[in-house]
Design brief:
Distance between the termini: 27 Å
Strand order of the largest sheet: 1-2
Helix content: 55-70%
Shape: elongated
Largest sheet: 2 strands, antiparallel
Strand content: 5-15%
Oligomer: single chain
Order of helices and strands: HHHEEHH
Length: 119
């Protein structure tokens, strides 16, 4: 089944977000070999060149490593993965709070709303 993309940002950036999310969630385990570019492109329903561009950008972050002739692997640096996880939390929270402030919700109202949500 193809991955779902929106028109808000380039596909390769959305692929980055999906793969990084899978790494920080643990869907892709530390030290695990990633599927080939072609296989990932088929899974995502995108052109292999688009997938290659996305993976190259992620590799630049250190979350992926290429072993020549053997493919790409998820980093074994759990501290780096933790930093990406923390950054995701902070960015998502800031985005949520920005939307709530734009709607003139007070801090107490936001806390009340969050406390009522079943997680």
């Amino acid at each position: 089944m193809a991955w779902e993309f929106n028109g808000k940002s380039p596909i390769f950036k959305q692929i980055n977000d999906i793969i990084i999310s899978k790494i920080i969630k643990g869907d892709y385990k530390s030290g695990e070999k990633l599927a080939s570019v072609r296989d990932l492109a088929v899974e995502a329903g995108v052109n292999p060149n688009t997938m290659q561009r996305a993976l190259s950008e992620i590799e630049g972050t250190g979350l992926l490593t290429t072993l020549r002739g053997d493919g790409r692997y998820i980093t074994e640096d759990k501290e780096l993965i933790g930093k990406f996880r923390q950054r995701f939390i902070e960015e998502s929270t800031a985005e949520f709070l920005g939307k709530m402030r734009a709607l003139d919700f007070s801090k107490d109202e936001i806390i009340s709303i969050i406390s009522k949500i079943n997680m």
